[in-house]
Amino acid sequence: MQQSNFEQDLIESEQAFAEQFDPNSVTYHGGIKVPVPVGGARVPESMPTMYPEQQDLNQYLNKEETDYGPEYRRCMYLKEFLADLKKTLNKISATHEALLRNQELQFKVDKNNAQAVEKLENNKQNELAGLNNTLELLKTQITYLDKDEKLKDRYKELVAVHQLSQKSYNSKEELFEFYQLIKNLTSAIFKDNQRLTDEIKQIKKLYTQK
Question: 148-155 long-range CB contacts below 8 Å, 24 or more apart?
Protein backbone atom coordinates (compact mmCIF):
# COMPACT_ATOMS: atom_id res chain seq x y z
CA MET A 1 0.00 0.00 0.00
CA GLN A 2 1.29 3.47 -0.89
CA GLN A 3 2.19 5.57 2.13
CA SER A 4 0.62 8.96 2.68
CA ASN A 5 2.73 12.10 2.59
CA PHE A 6 2.38 12.40 6.36
CA GLU A 7 3.63 8.87 6.98
CA GLN A 8 6.56 9.38 4.60
CA ASP A 9 7.50 12.68 6.26
CA LEU A 10 7.32 11.05 9.67
CA ILE A 11 9.65 8.23 8.60
CA GLU A 12 12.15 10.65 7.07
CA SER A 13 12.08 12.82 10.18
CA GLU A 14 12.80 9.85 12.41
CA GLN A 15 15.64 8.72 10.14
CA ALA A 16 17.19 12.21 10.13
CA PHE A 17 17.06 12.32 13.91
CA ALA A 18 18.65 8.88 14.26
CA GLU A 19 21.46 9.76 11.82
CA GLN A 20 22.64 12.52 14.16
CA PHE A 21 23.81 9.77 16.51
CA ASP A 22 25.29 7.51 13.81
CA PRO A 23 29.13 7.99 13.54
CA ASN A 24 28.96 6.84 9.91
CA SER A 25 26.51 9.54 8.93
CA VAL A 26 27.54 12.92 7.51
CA THR A 27 25.06 14.58 9.87
CA TYR A 28 26.63 13.03 12.98
CA HIS A 29 26.95 15.85 15.53
CA GLY A 30 30.08 14.33 17.03
CA GLY A 31 29.39 15.66 20.52
CA ILE A 32 31.53 18.08 22.49
CA LYS A 33 34.96 16.55 23.01
CA VAL A 34 36.17 18.95 25.69
CA PRO A 35 36.04 17.21 29.10
CA VAL A 36 33.87 18.86 31.72
CA PRO A 37 35.87 19.88 34.82
CA VAL A 38 34.58 18.66 38.18
CA GLY A 39 34.40 20.36 41.54
CA GLY A 40 32.61 23.48 40.31
CA ALA A 41 35.79 24.99 38.86
CA ARG A 42 34.09 26.05 35.64
CA VAL A 43 30.64 26.00 34.10
CA PRO A 44 30.71 24.16 30.72
CA GLU A 45 30.48 26.52 27.75
CA SER A 46 27.47 24.67 26.40
CA MET A 47 25.57 25.07 29.66
CA PRO A 48 23.48 28.23 30.05
CA THR A 49 24.03 30.13 33.25
CA MET A 50 21.86 32.44 35.34
CA TYR A 51 24.94 34.45 36.39
CA PRO A 52 26.55 37.22 34.28
CA GLU A 53 29.84 36.31 32.61
CA GLN A 54 33.15 37.25 34.24
CA GLN A 55 31.53 37.50 37.67
CA ASP A 56 32.50 35.79 40.89
CA LEU A 57 29.74 33.28 41.68
CA ASN A 58 30.33 33.70 45.42
CA GLN A 59 28.87 37.20 45.35
CA TYR A 60 25.58 35.63 44.27
CA LEU A 61 25.68 32.42 46.28
CA ASN A 62 26.68 34.16 49.51
CA LYS A 63 24.62 37.28 48.99
CA GLU A 64 23.23 38.64 52.26
CA GLU A 65 19.49 39.18 52.55
CA THR A 66 18.45 42.82 52.79
CA ASP A 67 17.17 43.87 56.22
CA TYR A 68 14.01 45.89 55.66
CA GLY A 69 13.50 46.64 59.33
CA PRO A 70 11.57 45.26 62.34
CA GLU A 71 8.08 45.60 60.85
CA TYR A 72 9.19 43.61 57.80
CA ARG A 73 10.61 40.88 60.04
CA ARG A 74 7.39 40.83 62.04
CA CYS A 75 5.27 40.41 58.90
CA MET A 76 7.51 37.64 57.59
CA TYR A 77 7.36 35.78 60.90
CA LEU A 78 3.58 36.14 61.11
CA LYS A 79 3.14 34.78 57.60
CA GLU A 80 5.09 31.68 58.53
CA PHE A 81 3.31 31.41 61.89
CA LEU A 82 -0.17 31.64 60.30
CA ALA A 83 0.78 29.06 57.68
CA ASP A 84 1.77 26.68 60.49
CA LEU A 85 -1.45 27.48 62.35
CA LYS A 86 -3.48 26.58 59.27
CA LYS A 87 -1.64 23.24 59.06
CA THR A 88 -2.48 22.60 62.71
CA LEU A 89 -6.19 23.25 62.14
CA ASN A 90 -6.28 21.10 59.03
CA LYS A 91 -4.56 18.30 60.92
CA ILE A 92 -7.14 18.45 63.70
CA SER A 93 -9.93 18.28 61.14
CA ALA A 94 -8.33 15.34 59.32
CA THR A 95 -7.74 13.46 62.58
CA HIS A 96 -11.38 13.73 63.65
CA GLU A 97 -12.45 12.53 60.23
CA ALA A 98 -10.12 9.51 60.59
CA LEU A 99 -11.45 8.80 64.10
CA LEU A 100 -15.04 8.87 62.86
CA ARG A 101 -14.19 6.58 59.96
CA ASN A 102 -12.41 4.18 62.33
CA GLN A 103 -15.40 4.24 64.67
CA GLU A 104 -17.75 3.29 61.84
CA LEU A 105 -15.49 0.36 60.97
CA GLN A 106 -15.47 -0.74 64.61
CA PHE A 107 -19.27 -0.99 64.51
CA LYS A 108 -19.13 -3.14 61.38
CA VAL A 109 -16.19 -5.40 62.19
CA ASP A 110 -16.75 -9.03 63.14
CA LYS A 111 -16.16 -9.09 66.90
CA ASN A 112 -14.87 -12.65 66.56
CA ASN A 113 -12.04 -11.40 64.32
CA ALA A 114 -9.61 -10.54 67.11
CA GLN A 115 -6.91 -9.36 64.71
CA ALA A 116 -9.21 -6.88 62.97
CA VAL A 117 -10.61 -5.64 66.28
CA GLU A 118 -7.12 -5.09 67.67
CA LYS A 119 -5.97 -3.30 64.52
CA LEU A 120 -8.87 -0.85 64.64
CA GLU A 121 -8.29 -0.17 68.33
CA ASN A 122 -4.59 0.47 67.68
CA ASN A 123 -5.52 2.85 64.87
CA LYS A 124 -7.82 4.70 67.24
CA GLN A 125 -5.18 5.03 69.94
CA ASN A 126 -2.58 6.23 67.42
CA GLU A 127 -4.95 8.88 66.09
CA LEU A 128 -5.77 10.04 69.62
CA ALA A 129 -2.08 10.25 70.53
CA GLY A 130 -1.44 12.32 67.40
CA LEU A 131 -4.41 14.54 68.23
CA ASN A 132 -3.08 15.20 71.73
CA ASN A 133 0.27 16.28 70.29
CA THR A 134 -1.47 18.57 67.82
CA LEU A 135 -3.57 20.12 70.58
CA GLU A 136 -0.44 20.84 72.61
CA LEU A 137 0.93 22.68 69.59
CA LEU A 138 -2.34 24.59 69.16
CA LYS A 139 -2.19 25.59 72.82
CA THR A 140 1.25 27.09 72.25
CA GLN A 141 0.02 28.94 69.16
CA ILE A 142 -2.96 30.35 71.07
CA THR A 143 -0.61 31.63 73.78
CA TYR A 144 1.47 33.44 71.17
CA LEU A 145 -1.57 35.04 69.52
CA ASP A 146 -2.83 36.31 72.88
CA LYS A 147 0.26 38.53 72.99
CA ASP A 148 -0.38 40.06 69.55
CA GLU A 149 -2.70 43.03 69.87
CA LYS A 150 -3.54 43.08 66.16
CA LEU A 151 -4.53 39.42 65.86
CA LYS A 152 -5.71 38.06 69.20
CA ASP A 153 -9.34 39.15 68.73
CA ARG A 154 -9.50 37.66 65.24
CA TYR A 155 -8.48 34.24 66.50
CA LYS A 156 -10.21 34.03 69.86
CA GLU A 157 -12.33 31.13 68.51
CA LEU A 158 -9.19 28.99 68.60
CA VAL A 159 -9.96 28.39 72.28
CA ALA A 160 -13.31 26.86 71.27
CA VAL A 161 -11.55 24.70 68.67
CA HIS A 162 -9.15 23.45 71.33
CA GLN A 163 -12.05 22.51 73.62
CA LEU A 164 -14.23 20.94 70.92
CA SER A 165 -11.29 18.95 69.59
CA GLN A 166 -11.29 16.93 72.81
CA LYS A 167 -14.84 15.67 72.23
CA SER A 168 -15.87 12.45 70.47
CA TYR A 169 -18.14 12.73 67.43
CA ASN A 170 -20.43 9.95 66.31
CA SER A 171 -21.56 11.26 62.93
CA LYS A 172 -20.69 13.70 60.18
CA GLU A 173 -23.69 15.78 61.23
CA GLU A 174 -22.17 16.22 64.70
CA LEU A 175 -18.87 17.21 63.13
CA PHE A 176 -20.39 19.75 60.73
CA GLU A 177 -20.47 22.71 63.14
CA PHE A 178 -16.95 21.93 64.31
CA TYR A 179 -15.70 21.76 60.72
CA GLN A 180 -17.42 25.06 59.95
CA LEU A 181 -15.61 26.71 62.84
CA ILE A 182 -12.26 25.49 61.54
CA LYS A 183 -13.17 26.59 58.01
CA ASN A 184 -13.93 30.13 59.22
CA LEU A 185 -10.56 30.31 60.94
CA THR A 186 -8.60 29.03 57.95
CA SER A 187 -10.40 31.60 55.78
CA ALA A 188 -9.32 34.33 58.20
CA ILE A 189 -5.75 33.03 58.01
CA PHE A 190 -5.84 33.22 54.21
CA LYS A 191 -7.04 36.83 54.29
CA ASP A 192 -4.45 37.84 56.88
CA ASN A 193 -1.67 36.25 54.87
CA GLN A 194 -2.80 38.19 51.81
CA ARG A 195 -2.77 41.39 53.85
CA LEU A 196 0.69 40.61 55.21
CA THR A 197 1.95 39.99 51.69
CA ASP A 198 0.70 43.43 50.65
CA GLU A 199 2.36 45.01 53.69
CA ILE A 200 5.66 43.31 52.88
CA LYS A 201 5.52 44.60 49.31
CA GLN A 202 4.81 48.13 50.55
CA ILE A 203 7.71 47.98 53.04
CA LYS A 204 10.08 46.88 50.30
CA LYS A 205 8.80 49.60 48.00
CA LEU A 206 9.31 52.36 50.57
CA TYR A 207 12.77 50.98 51.40
CA THR A 208 13.92 51.16 47.78
CA GLN A 209 12.64 54.73 47.49
CA LYS A 210 14.90 55.97 50.29
Answer: 148/78, 151/78, 151/192, 154/188, 154/192, 155/85, 155/185, 155/188
